[in-house]
Design a protein that fits this description.
The complex is a heterodimer of chains A (about 375) and B (about 80). Chain A contains seven helices and 23 strands. Chain A is α+β, with helices and mostly antiparallel strands and about 375 residues long. In chain B, strand 5 and strand 6 form a beta hairpin. Classes of the chains: A alpha+beta (about 375), B alpha+beta (about 80).
Chain lengths: ~375, ~80
Amino acid sequence: MRLWVKGKIRGLNLERLLNEARTQGVRPRMIRRQRSGEMTVICSPKDYEALQSLAREKGFDMTAGKAVGLFRWLRALKNRWGLGLGLLLGCLAAALSLRYVWAVEVINAGAYEADARTYLQEIGAVPGALRQSVDLTRLREQLEWRWPRVQWVRAEWAGVALRITLEEGVPPPEVKTEGRTGDVVAAEDGLLTNLTVYAGTAEKKAGDFVRAGQVLIRGEERGGNGEMIPVKARGEAAARVWVSARVRLPLYEENALPTGRQTRRTVIETPLFALAFRETPDYLTWDREARRLPLGGAWLPMEVVRETYYEAALETGQRSIEDVKKEGQRAALALLNKALLGDETVDKWINFSMIDGDTILTEATAEVKRDIGRFQPR
Amino acid sequence: MGMNEWIAAGVKQSAQPRVTLNGRGEVLVEGHTGLFSYDTARVRIRTPLGILEIRGQDLVIGYFGAEDLMVRGRVDGVGIEGE
């Protein structure tokens, strides 16, 4: 490594100075001419001194040399030797400190952390120990043998710290409750055809007849240690249920037969009052016919109502049973279809029965397949 | 050749060092970028093409300018060392 000094020389006939310097053994690194009468010289400190004395002797003007490159920094350090010494000691301390263990980290150890730290102390892998005394490969193997349930162990250097990372084996799946616990109960009576349990414990089985409200799937599961864990029961309870719809229709009906008598009258109606030119007739029963004729009016709309009353005599007549049955069947099936909600229908039938001799009860029943399970929180 | 290309060619041409050997006693170097080293047997000059070396005997710096330099003496050879 060579140290260089840079300076300027001013004067006339600089070539003569260069040739003279050459004869004295001065070997510059670089010489550049800036302008007439001035050039820049870079050479060793010793050559620079020689050149300076020669320049003075020959009448040239030469500036004081300035260190360039690394020499410049070394010269600065020469005046601040404490800084240099401090830097050197600092680097030395850093290099020495890297040979030791400064910290021990145990990550993701869970229940094994205390045992891990105790074991590391036993083998001497503690802060302050020499790094070369810790064999990472052997340490990892020993830890894996020590904890069979641990999936893997990683031992590595993280800067100046010894880091031990553990990963346990695949744990048992978590029992998810997703909110409140509860049971699956039967929403209605039915015959279970299939019971699928997603969560909980089955209380019934296919082929059981269940009543509404009975527990089909209990919201409990057995955990890994044998204890019962409350869960939110989930599942499907397919069952055959029977849905009915009833309609009552009377056999007798009253018919109004006109007697021939009729009465007409005219009424002027407004929103505020009605003006009739005749009283209503005193018929026991009648049928009324009304024709309305608007008269107009912006602030008081007015209508003329022409009414006709037809006197009628009520007569009770019996309807045909078949007619009543047909009407009842139509009505019962319409109600039943509304209640089925699109379920898969297995069978459907109609039953008729007479009540008190004057009423036909029509009952439409359908057997359907439906999921009767309903979640009931506790 | 367009104006810009002509100027670029001229600029490129002027950046090229020119060495003129006058007999065996004088070498004029134009377009140098500094005097690298010199003694009686060898003068090395920096140029854009590399280090120009003049070999000879009793070599002296006859003229040293900002862009041209003259070496006098018995010139035995001139060569360029690639940078």
